[in-house]
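Chapter summary example: a protein plus protoporphyrin IX containing FE.
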Amino acid sequence: MDPLSFGSVVKEARAKLDFNKFAKHLVQRVFGYYSLEGDHKFLQMYSNKHLMGDGLVVMTQAMMSNLQNLMLHSFGSGDDQNGWQDDGLFKYSYNIVFRAGYLALFGNKTPTQPEGLEKAKEADRLESDELFYEFRKYDQLFPNLAYGVLGPNEKMEAERLKRLFWNMLSVQKVSTRDNISGWVLDQQQVRAERGMEESMQDRFMFLLLWASQGNTGPSAFWLLLFLMKHPEAMKAVRAEVEQVLRETGQEVKRGGPLIDLTRDMLLKTPVLDSTVEETLRLTAAPVLTRAVLQDMALKMADGREYSIRKGDRVALFPYTAVHMDPEVHPDPATFKYDRFLTSDGVRKTDFYKNGRKVKYYTMPWGAGVTMCPGRFFATNELKQFIFLMLSYFDFELKDPDDKMPDIDVRRWGFGSMQPTRDISFRYRLKF
Ligand code: HEM
């Protein structure tokens, strides 16, 4: 569909085009979760409260301290100093961002006496790594699971993993933790108050993990890879990162305090913002699906009308319709870190097709009522990860001539794309 006509789907009243029916069915089949009346309203309410505005200040802090625990725990300890570590860039980025995001949302191990905080931090590192290991197995089964085409063995494995997550993330286990985010806590409490069985609340916890952790890690990989493949982008982002740190009087040095990054500091990074937006334009490909609840006409921007019937489904795929439209985004297959910057260096929002301004010029987060409520937190997660990588690590591709890996098209429609293969890199702490 022509992106100028997207509004006719995205803004249509729920009585005509409904997102809920399809989503409800999918979460039942894939996550075994049966929603409550008003479920979506609570999801929106608590996401707005905790993942945006003042709530985002708290979440950004939590993310920062968990990223530091995972990435910098050996900083200054003398361990592995100056030693290069080899890894897959996808595995590394997804692992770190998934685990830090999980700990920021689901809380930390409560320190016990006499072991104390360091032991609890170590337990966070180990437990989150185990969770990620199992999550990746489920993640890989996910496209076929969602399409309902798993083989018998895969089906059994998916069932085993689902039960494992219900257990690992159970309300009982999570409630013993410190620093649980308001996002997780409020959503669990409202369901408990409304009489949802605890076993169903456990299932909901897994749904929250999935929605919050399945996309940001893969996006962190693409972002870092694009930067490594485009020296001019890396140079511009590095200059911005250094400037933000300088302006807040922070310096990374041996024996010095770890840098802090607040939500407010992350509001002053137009170059990195544009780089993130460009990365998502090229690598986030959700499908927006709506069920048609009554016979109706869909009006296109050029005046045409399509009659659609009750029972039909309408789906938008912005990736081909607008992300890769050469009229809206010239040379669309090329990564241009400053595509979303004006000549004055501020965020660019003017994009045109047929001489008309396009409102929905990229849609990595979907749009309308189901638009991702985690988008500000996710963007901050990505930016914090890049800040720490650039400030504390030397890193390089093992083979600088290695081509960009292809996108695994089996995941088209599910949000952030994953590569068909990993790419080798090495990294080491700078100090
Ligand atoms: C780069 C990272 C992310 C991407 C690309 C992304 C993308 C999306 C998209 C496309 C949707 C809409 C799906 C639809 O229309 O049905 C969505 C929904 C959602 N996302 Fe995200 N997301 C990301 C990160 C996050 C994070 C970090 C959180 C939470 C902390 C989150 C929480 C949610 C929730 C709760 C929904 C369901 C919203 C609803 O049904 O109203 N997402 N996300």
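Key point: The mean pLDDT is 95.
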